[in-house]
Amino acid sequence: ALFWSFAYFFCLLTAYYILRPLRDEMSIVGGTRNLHWLLTGNFALMLLAVPLFGWVVAKFPRRTFIPLVYRFFILNILIFFALMTFKENDPWIARAFFLWVGVFNLYIVSVFWGFMADIFKSEQGKRLFGFISAGGSAGALLGPIIARTLAEPLGPVNLLLLSAVFLELTQVCFRALINDPALTKADHKPKPIGGSIFAGFSAVARSPYLLGICVYMFLYTSTSTFLWLQQINIIDANVKAQVARIEIFASLDMIVGALTILAQLFVTGRFMPKLGVGVFIAAVPVFTLAGFLALIIAPHGIFLILFNTLRRAANFALSKPAREVLYTVVTPEQKFKPKVFNDTVAYRGGDAVTGWVHAGLDHGLGFELPALAGVAAAYSAVWIGTSVYLGRKQEQMAAGENHERT
User: I need a labelling partner for 341 at 20 to 30 A (CA). Which of 103, 121, 220, 328 fits?
Assistant: First the structure.
């Protein structure tokens, strides 16, 4: 089961990271001054997509709805391949692709981790999620290598087909896991999870714990968007060739993937059970606050790109596995619906709000990087407090769950 979970996440993130450099390039093709509108569009799409996903989860068992989600996205990839082949570098197609990837990457990863939290218990998650995450990191390393190596000889558009192949391979891994009697012995007669299609919204509103995760996600993506917008502007201003920009984006993703997999293999699985979820979930907020304070003092573009790269690696290696462990102590319905709400609506809500804040401060008021970093540092301080609460609450809930079993 550990091997198939590793392979599943490997194929999944290989598929996404082949597309990611192309998505970043499409943000430039669509116009960098329109990015706050695109981020708002991503948020609006999430508001439409979450109730639809809630209906699917309520009506179908996981062995049905998970393949359905991935096959739907494969069809989307093939449609974009046809559109981009017919009309290259069209700004409207570029904007549509950017919006679509914003939905695609969050849903496929959220569905994966919801499935992992459903088949592994809390104590197993602490031991195994770091190694499983390393499978995704290996994919996050291979995907950019493929994109960087083949963008010029194959052409950027043909990368879409390679992504579709890896996304289809995830279904082999999923079938192996769903048919494993050791993991699914309670699911011989698979039933839908049930509940309302709006259960994701209502469950988050009712539960301080789930609301805390929602706030955590909002603050994480808000600080991420500050850095991403500045990085896009720096690369757009200094690199004019499309293939060269794609290669730069892919190279940065390669560095993130390499650093992440090293940390996941030698740090996460070994130290999370000893130090606890709280330490790991607070690591990136603390690092982020330190980084933004440093940017106030040394507001240089190269330092910002380096900070963003290291922060992304720390998130994937430390905070991401810890965030998934948070869901091992909630109900099966909460492992999918509220989780998808937090991973999508809260995530893209942070994008949208920060996009407008950044546009207002940067384009409207003419704030320079030090002032923008100061605003983001304030976000980071609140984020640290949220992390402390979630770490303590998870440990309490896990202790209660273990007591009930004994």
Answer: 121
